[in-house]
Amino acid sequence: MKKILSLAFCSALALAAVQGPARAADPIEIGVIANLTGSAVKTSVQMTRGVELAADAINAAGGIDGRPVKLIVEDSENRAQEALNAANKLYNVDKVPAAIMFGGSGLMIPVAELAKEKGRVLVNTSSSSPKLGNYPGTLFSILPLDDIVGKELGLLMADSGAKTAAIVVPNSTFGLGVAEAAAAAFEAKGGKIVKKVAFTEGQPDYRADIQPVVPAKPDVIITAGYGDDSRAMLKAARELGLTAKWYAAYPSILEIENKDFLDGKLFGVDNGGYSQPAGKAVADKYGAKFNGTADLMAHVYYGYDALMVVAAAIKKAGSAEPAAIAKALPDVVKAYDGATGKIAWDARGQRIAPPIDVIEYKAGDFVTTATRN
């Protein structure tokens, strides 16, 4: 009986809130699409935590013109069809004006097609294919694209004095895009690619893929990847006795299989914003909410900035209509000092000239040793 009375009381309060003059401001609903089950879960959860932190900050400051932000989170299972199902639900049922998404280009591009068709906004926090530039006014990227990060990686390798390199990347748009840009920059500086391996993701053992790299004896290895695949790939390299140094795009998203194997032998480039004060402030918020920063990854910062710029666009436009958000976004990023640094977009809504950190793996941690741009 007590439970029934409690529910009735709550219902009465809700009805009074709707009917009476003290009705609370309606929330602004924003969608989030992430891999909460399946593969690449860890990095996806990190992105959603970043979005949560931004929502907390926005709502603690009074919301957007008095309206709180409400997140509606859907699971893509790291599968294209499920990502589309999630987006359909958010855009068609929940009627969100914008969604923030984690996923590779194989998921991001189909969702971008749907967002374009529905006239909605999609904010990319994880995909880096240059093909994302085909959706101006619909898809806006917080993450720099492969051609930018890959070029910086290739230049870093050349600056290290390396003369030869092997490529070991997943056979995906991300892996191949990074490898192509890094190799082009490295070769332009006189370097030589001596072996190329594009492995199929999802294998339990990668020794057969890595074995051909051993006799090539490269000075360095270009790599990219994340999750269990990167862990298994690096394990195979260790077991086969590869001694070359590794150069990775976004090294902190690799799953390190053996700390000693890569100590002082893993380098890379990443977006440099989160080593700056705004990024450090987000790290502090993360530690307070999630009991420390031991598991904090770069995707927290991308998720945080994604919601912050959407909120700023809604405020500037004075409207949560998708077209108004899309129109305001390019203007608000110009004045936004983000957790991932200053954001500059080209006419397609794709990030250009990001701050780039040079990273080295030392004693079980990723250490920023320099900043480019």
Automatic annotation (TrEMBL):
Residues 1-24 form the signal peptide. Keywords: Amino-acid transport, Signal, Transport. The lineage of its organism: Bacteria, Pseudomonadati, Pseudomonadota, Alphaproteobacteria, Hyphomicrobiales. It comes from Ancylobacter defluvii. GO terms for biological process: amino acid transport. Belongs to the leucine-binding protein family. The keyword Transmembrane does not apply. Coiled coil: none annotated. This is Branched-chain amino acid ABC transporter substrate-binding protein.
